[in-house]
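Quick check before the chapter quiz. The format below is the same one you will see on the exam, so make sure you can read both the input and the output lines.
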Amino acid sequence: MDHIERLSAMIYQDENGLLLLRSDKLGERDWRSDHTYKLIFGSKGGGTYQTRQQDLTIGQQQFVIFNPLQEHRQLHMWGEKFLIELEQKLLKEAASELSVSSGELEFAAVSYYHPQIDRWACFVREFIGWNSEKPDEVNQLLVENSFTQLAILMVQYGLGKHQETMPEVVQDEVLKLVTDAIKQSYEQDWTLRGMAEIARLNKYQFAHLFKERTGISPYSWLQLYRLIRSQPDLIHTDKTVLQIAMTHGFKNVSAYIRLFKKVYGTAPSESRTTNRFY
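Here is the expected output.
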């Protein structure tokens, strides 16, 4: 049993954010929203959260990001809760450093896996565990420096309206063949069988492997990729929402609007108006 498992809760906080790590009081919570970005990571367990649009299951090593003022509620957590809250100014500074020209950063309400964020979370968690019996200033300094690093990783790899393509996730060579093929013709009518044939697996083996390595199903990945690729057209062109949906592989405009609302909580037309001048 490591140090963290012996402690029920630890909190570190500075002007840029807050880190909470706890193994007690993991039951249901009330609806919450405030002015920070929240990243909730399934390090030693997982959980289920609810937004006004959907329920989100966070598996082990997966994470979800909530935007400022986005209403959400914790339904259940198991194993451990690892939550980081970051102030908006820190994310804006990270976006500026990475030359991301966007208004308010808005992340998609999607639970998924990314190796870089996983490595960050594992390092911070284990460092705090190893040093829990040392002076608290050691952990505090590490956490403060890590907030800036996490903000950069969130801008780089977090799915959101600032992205023009899907952040690279797949490290497996076989699956990378599939995602590369999809990217080259994502507008086409892909089937699970067609994806599996590229991987030289049957469709059940392929679907299991893809979900295991990315945190989402192959079809969900495809639809999110289409959504991400559609965003520049939505913000920077005068194409209709129907034209954008059909251009980027959606079977009809209703499917596009439904997915957009699910991950962002607003309709594409509303998002276009809000982000038009960025």
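If your answer matched, good. DSSP finds eleven helices and eight strands in the chain.
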